[in-house]
Amino acid sequence: MEKFIIEGGRKLKGSISVSGSKNVALKALVAACLTEEKVVIENIPLISDFMIMIDIIEEFGGSVQIKDHTAIIQVKKIKDGKMSLDKAAAVRTSAMFMAPLLVRNKKALIPNPGGCRIGARPIDRIIAGLKKMGVETKYNSRDGYFHLEVKGLIKGIEYIFNKNTHTGTETLILISVLSNGRTILKNAAAEPEVDDLISLLNMMGAKIKRTETRTIIIDGVKKLEGTKYRIPPDRNEIVTFAIATILTKGDIFIKDIVNTGLSEFLKLFHACGGGFREEKNGIRFYYKGQISAADIETTFYPGFMTDWQGPWAVLMTQAKGISIIHETVYESRFGYVDELEKMGAKIKFFNPKVKDPEKVYNFNYEDNRPECKHAIKIYGGIRFHNAVANISDLRAGATLVLAALAANGKTVIFGVEHLDRGYEQFEKRLKFLGANIERITEN
Hints:
The protein has helices spanning 22-32, 48-59, 85-90, 98-105, 124-132, 166-176, 192-203, 235-247, 263-271, 309-317, 337-342, 357-360, 394-406, 416-420, 426-432; strands at residues 2-7, 13-16, 39-42, 63-67, 70-74, 107-111, 135-140, 145-150, 158-160, 182-186, 207-212, 215-219, 227-230, 251-255, 275-279, 282-286, 296-297, 322-326, 346-350, 375-379, 388-390, 410-414, 436-441. By secondary structure, the protein is α+β, with helices and mostly antiparallel strands. Helix 4 (98-105) packs parallel to helix 6 (166-176). The longest helix has 13 residues, at 235-247. Residues 114-121 have low confidence and may be disordered.
């Protein structure tokens, strides 16, 4: 068991780099399995989710070499179409391996995807698309696997997603690049990470273009080739360090980043009194004074990202006034609230009055549970005190660390392994900026 011990009250100062985007790197590994040739991926994040995805590739007969922050992947032949239940349960992106398995082996046995427990995360929107493409699909409730098989050609289709799905869009793109004919995806996800995956696939020889904000056209090709690709900076890390700076009344410079994919955050950050300045080689974030409260509603790109709402909640505990966070992407993403309350936060759950919940909420609203609350009211102006806290998921982990950095006294945080899924050497980089944080391993 590992834990963090954090003594709050230290200002964060200095320059730092952020890791390569987790949400691009994991999908790049799947894309690399679509070809027999070598794919070189630079600027990879050395996080546990990435390593589990590598284990899955090696189980399928692929070879992966890691040199510093570069991965060299080659999958000459996929030897098996069944994924290990334990590894698949650890990372929800594992389900996307159905793409190389189907296009290269014609069969795939995929367990229900895992990852953080922040909602049901059904893959029904992907399965509906697969069926239209000619893939036979059956879920066996006894073994917990989706049994997928292609008996002819995977055919190009026109498919409209009934709701926004980042993973669903990327999975159907990955399958369509080697399909027979043209695929048109409508109401497709528009996140920058989707376009990063498209760029990688096009470098491998795919023919993909986004003709409108939410329309993607894929013309199937016979084969893909090897290439070299560099992972862009992680947007979630940028937001985490930006908020940490304000909470500690600090001043940091994040190197080699631009504002791509950050406009909604930066607009609100500025409106609330956060300081930032875009410079030639990065962005400086700095404390200017009292933060004001603001209401947000999470949604898909280009709106306020759901992964940002936990760190934003911590920022609002320090703001002047009362703020509201309305979560519309996942039905259960406030797992950090009880832990923040242990540290002195004043937060109330509620369900806002919504005229058409089926349209407002991106999760399958018919599966909504009565106990799930979709909004919180945060009373600002509190001072965090020390506590013993437990991390429930990746983004909740970053949220609790941020609160501990701003707290009086020493805070102990258990469940550090959740943070390791998405943040490389998080405590070491915070310590470099001046934080008093230690990782302790207990037998």
